Amino acid sequence: MVTTQKTLHDFTLQGIDGKPMPLSQFKGEVVLLVNTASECGYTGQYEGLEQLWLANKDKGLVVVGVPSNDFGGQEPGTAGEIAAFCKLNYGVTFPLTDKLAVKGDGADPLYKWAGEMAGKEGMPKWNFHKYLFGRDGKFIEWFSTQAKPLGPKITAAVKEALAI
Asked: Could you list the active site residues?
């Protein structure tokens, strides 16, 4: 019996607009999945994420922001408040999901799977943890909170993934 390995495209999240966001819509695109928070010391990374998205979306990159209140209660707002904050303060135009749990037993199935792919060290330990997936939906790499969206690690990995 042949079993197929899961990919990013097997999951559906809820968009910040309340509508289903099947990740299969991103088949053929590279996806950078980032758990975000509006009241975090790293919230300024929204700016770099937006710049990375704008510079590469025509080449096939999609940045998906996943608001989470898991770390320090730093995303207390409603979906509408989060969307407005991101748009007004950082001009965010990349897709955002509704608020999700990204760690522990209550983590969304996508984050449980991504954590398994990344291994124990690659599980989110704070806001703005990043996962990179290839055009085929397969896990490529993870980046810690401290890795800047426009820093050399992420930009090199994105460039390489887009070239495939």
From this structure: 40
